[in-house]
């Protein structure tokens, strides 16, 4: 294990990001971690080691702020080997009741912020001719549940971005993985991490029952953040990490079922698909 690597982790003051940062520091890695509040991040991490830990206050909606944090990381540690785009939040509700400003906000955080961090880091990774980018997506970006349409759209966008990014940067020795977990015991379903759009519209029974089930499951999710963090660290040491990695049994099951259904549908409509060509 090469624990001299430098990691840059966004959204590190809680949830999977915080668990990952703690495990990285325990393992001897050097870590730059972003949060909106440095003091909260320091208290959450509980390990203040200026030689290996760089807490950064970063507004991920501000490209200049992102650029400055990258420059500060390079000035402190000399390089960045692994980027983890972890910052994000969920949104559950009915799309016709979701305000446009709320839709734009979640795309800004879940998609555009990740793209902008990648933009800022790529010049340094290209110069190194090495690097590893982990974008934290969700199984919901591939197999959504009722009520999660807008959130699923953000994670589907992040997955598509990751797929093509991997093709773009392969020649520079840079690898990309989109990690797509199911439910993990983080603070994802708490008020600070979830936009819960209430509804007074009659019907939408699938959305309402799903929302109740998900919120009732807070703190009971089957996913273990410690195990997920260990897997992410192992990925960074792998010579050929996967492009997609579904994390959790539920994520694997849902993805496998959809792939099988898509394959069957593709074949069932094959003649219609190919009939659209000239000739």
Automatic annotation (TrEMBL):
Annotated Gene3D superfamilies: NAD(P)-binding Rossmann-like Domain
Pfam families per the UniProt record, alphabetical: adh_short
InterPro entries found in the cross-reference section: NAD(P)-bd_dom_sf, Sc_DH/Rdtase_CS, SDR_fam, SDR_oxidoreductase
Keyword terms: Oxidoreductase
Oxidoreductase as UniProt keyword: yes
Origin superkingdom: Bacteria
Database matches in SUPFAM superfamilies: NAD(P)-binding Rossmann-fold domains (SSF51735)
Family designation: Belongs to the short-chain dehydrogenases/reductases (SDR) family.
Protein name (record): SDR family NAD(P)-dependent oxidoreductase
Species annotation: Chitinophaga filiformis (Myxococcus filiformis)
Lineage start: Bacteria, Pseudomonadati, Bacteroidota, Chitinophagia, Chitinophagales
């Amino acid at each position: 294990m090469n624990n001299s690597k430098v990691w840059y982790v966004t959204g590190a003051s809680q949830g999977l990001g915080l668990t990952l940062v703690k495990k990285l520091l325990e393992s001897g890695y050097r870590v730059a971690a972003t949060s909106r509040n440095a003091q909260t991040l320091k208290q959450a991490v509980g390990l203040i080691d200026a030689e290996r830990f760089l807490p950064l206050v970063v507004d991920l909606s501000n490209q200049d702020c992102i650029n400055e944090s990258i420059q500060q990381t390079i000035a402190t540690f000399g390089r960045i080997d692994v980027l983890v785009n972890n910052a994000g939040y969920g949104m559950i509700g009915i799309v016709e009741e979701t305000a446009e400003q709320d839709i734009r906000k979640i795309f800004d955080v879940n998609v555009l912020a990740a793209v902008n961090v990648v933009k800022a880091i790529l010049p340094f990774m290209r110069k190194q001719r090495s690097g590893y980018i982990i974008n934290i997506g969700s199984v919901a970006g591939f197999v959504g549940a009722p009520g999660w349409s807008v959130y699923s759209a953000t994670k589907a966008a992040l997955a598509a971005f990751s797929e093509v990014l991997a093709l773009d940067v392969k020649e520079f020795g840079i690898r990309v993985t989109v990690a797509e977990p199911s439910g993990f015991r983080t603070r994802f379903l708490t008020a600070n991490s979830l936009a819960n759009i209430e509804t007074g519209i009659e019907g939408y029974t699938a959305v309402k029952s799903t929302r109740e089930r998900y919120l009732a499951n807070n703190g009971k999710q089957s996913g273990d953040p410690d195990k997920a963090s260990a897997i992410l660290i192992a990925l960074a040491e792998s010579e050929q990490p996967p492009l997609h990695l579904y994390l959790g049994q539920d994520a694997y099951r849902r993805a496998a079922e959809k792939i099988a259904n898509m394959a069957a549908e593709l074949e069932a409509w094959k003649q219609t698909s190919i009939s659209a060509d000239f000739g």
